[in-house]
Structure formats: C-alpha cells, structure tokens
Specification:
Layout (H helix, E strand, L loop, with lengths): L8 H13 L6 E6 L2 E6 L3 E7 L2 E6 L2 E5 L3 H7 L5 E5 L2 E4 L3 E6 L5 E5 L5 E3 L12
Antiparallel strand pairs: 1-2, 3-4, 3-7, 4-5, 6-7, 8-9, 9-10
Length: 131
C-alpha cells in the first residue's frame, strides 16, 4: 500500500502528471500483405525483424511489412512481453519455446509455431540467464 503525503502538493501533482502522460503500449499493428492492409494484434506476433527500410512482422501464419523502424517499435512495445534479442530482432516472449546454445557458445531462440531460430547478440544474452 502506498501512502501519499498530501502536504506536498508538488509531488502529488507530479505523480498525477506522470500517470496521465504514460503512453499505453502498442496493441496492434497495421501491416501490408501484398496490396492488403492487415490488422495484427501484438499477441499474434512471434517477432519483428528489420528488413532494409521496412520491418517484417512475423506471425504463426506468415509475414507482413510495416514502415516503422525497430528502434521506434521497442519504445512502443511492452518490455515484459517483447525482448530485443538482436539489434534487428524483437521477439515475443510468449512465442519462445527454448534457447539453444550452438557449438561456439552463441545463443539462438527457438520459437513456437515457427521453424526458424533467431540469433541472440552477445549484448542480450543476459535476458536468458534466469531461464
């Protein structure tokens, strides 16, 4: 339980302002599939991968493209649901089945509903130490 000191109105104002300014996390993306625009909820997404000037949105059923860089996506996604595992890849934690260590000691993420594995950069291996 949190008790607020109402005698310090500046602190109370700041707390209310922070809550009001808090931007909600991304809930869906509008992605191009050929000539069609598809609405994809973030829960359906297995991972995002940078692809030249586009970002590929990968679901269990296929791939789509959006015009938003990975850097912007990371700021809009819930960090408890999406982890950046490489400078060009952000993965949905709920889509991870396991982590594989190859002969050279590099980690790769194995996904549910997808045949490919995703490489984990050295700077992001700390995310998997608790697993």
């Amino acid at each position: 339980m949190v008790y607020l000191d109402y005698t310090n109105k500046g602190a109370l104002y700041e707390l209310v302002r922070q809550k009001a300014d808090a931007k909600p996390y991304l809930r869906w993306v509008n992605a191009s599939v050929g000539t069609t625009i598809k609405l994809i909820t973030v829960d359906e997404i297995c991972y995002f991968r940078a692809d030249t000037k586009y970002t590929m949105v990968v679901t269990a059923g296929g791939e789509s493209l959006i015009r938003k860089p990975i850097k912007e996506l990371v700021e809009e996604l819930d960090p408890s649901q999406f982890w950046q595992v490489h400078r060009s890849t952000v993965v949905n934690v709920n889509a991870i089945v396991g982590v594989i260590r190859d002969i050279r000691g590099h980690l790769q993420v194995k996904l549910r509903h997808r045949p490919e594995t995703l490489p984990v950069s050295e700077g992001y291996t700390h995310l998997f130490r608790q697993m």
